[in-house]
Design a protein that fits this description.
The chain has 335 residues and is an alpha+beta fold. It contains 10 helices and 15 strands. The strands form 4 sheets. It has a 6-stranded mixed beta sheet with strand order 8-9-10-11-13-12. Helix 4 packs across helix 8 and helix 6 packs antiparallel against helix 9.
Length: 335
């Protein structure tokens, strides 16, 4: 009696880098020919296979062992050369990167009472009291659907009812930030005043008259109103300030790390800074100025023009790739 032939099977595993999709693998009989195809997403290009010598996006493989292939993709863009930063300040470029219609993880707020806290207030910078003071403030706890919480500290110059309105407003906006921008955020301070927002030291500073200007297409620069910006840049500004709070200390030199990788990326980009503000304050504003535009390029390319995307990548390609390499929790934008 002739024995049944032994069928040997092997596993083909196919993975991909960010920026594209690939034909799935599976389990196949020995000797089977399988064609695997890599397809880039919009704004990306296929650049090859890891550990496989072919630049063709479709390859045919004969299955004779357990095999693994990875398709590699990269940003595709037209290169511009800059002698000066392409922008003055990045929060003003567009109000469409994150909008009020985007989802928020905000769940609820709870009023905790009035407590003595040391709060920052830019209106105090020119006084003998300095930029911060001890003050009995309204304290709220903000709850988010991913299990995180932060406090909102509201200046008593607001009524209790007004403090709740301001807290809910900011709590929603903060819920539109991915975890990577909230991981070191412990509190938000809300004051009146026409003064810029701020970020760092575990907190974000809000001045509500400035908020109104961010929302209505005007920005106060200390001298005159400038009204040539796209309306409602409050979400973009909050991303900038949250980057100060949750990214700066982790990636700049002489803070929690030596910043070697960041400095290498800046050098590889030829020292191009995305804005005048970043150029003039390279170890304070470069990350915050760029991270907003990184979000646009990486997660919402359809919300910016091709020309804007080309400018961002032409100036800061290596810093964009550096952000990609960090494994930041940006799942709110991915989903």
């Amino acid at each position: 009696e002739t024995p049944e032939p032994v069928v040997v099977q092997y596993t083909l595993t196919v993975t991909t880098s960010d920026g594209g999709s690939v034909t799935e693998g599976g389990t196949f009989d020995e000797g089977t020919e399988v064609t695997v195809t890599a397809t880039p997403n919009e704004g990306y290009q296929f650049i090859g296979w890891q550990d496989f010598d072919s630049d063709e996006s479709s390859i045919t493989i004969t299955i004779n062992s357990n095999q693994e292939y990875k398709a590699l993709f990269d940003y595709e863009y037209n290169q511009f050369n800059f002698n000066e930063p392409p922008f003055g300040g990045t929060i003003f470029i567009t109000g469409d990167i994150i909008t009020s219609s985007d989802p928020s993880l905000f769940d609820k707020i709870e009023y905790d009472g009035v407590f003595l806290r040391n709060i920052y207030d830019r209106r105090l910078e020119e006084t003998s009291q300095g930029p911060a003071r001890d003050l009995e403030v309204y304290v709220y706890t903000n709850y988010y659907s991913d299990g995180t919480t932060i406090e909102t500290l509201v200046n008593p110059e607001f009524t209790l009812e007004e403090s709740r309105i301001e807290t809910e407003k900011m709590a929603f906006l903060i819920g539109q930030l991915p975890y990577a921008l909230r991981r070191d955020l412990r509190f938000v301070v809300v004051n009146k005043g026409l003064n810029p927002w701020g970020g760092g030291g575990g907190g974000i500073l809000i001045h509500t008259e400035q908020t109104a200007q961010y929302e209505i297409n005007e920005y106060w620069d200390g001298i005159v109103y400038n009204s040539n910006y796209v309306a409602d840049i409050s979400q973009e500004t909050l991303i900038h300030e949250a980057a100060h709070t949750s990214l700066d200390a982790r990636y700049y030199p002489d803070r929690l790390t030596d910043g070697e990788k960041w400095l290498e990326a800046v050098a590889l980009d030829g020292g191009c800074y995305i804005s005048n503000y970043a150029r003039d304050n390279p170890l304070r504003e470069d990350i915050a100025e760029l991270f907003l535009l990184y979000i646009a390029v990486r997660y919402f390319p359809e919300r910016i023009s091709d020309d804007l995307r080309d400018k961002i990548l032409s100036c800061a390609y290596n810093r964009i790739k550096y952000f990609d390499s960090l494994g930041l929790d940006m799942s709110l934008y991915e989903n």
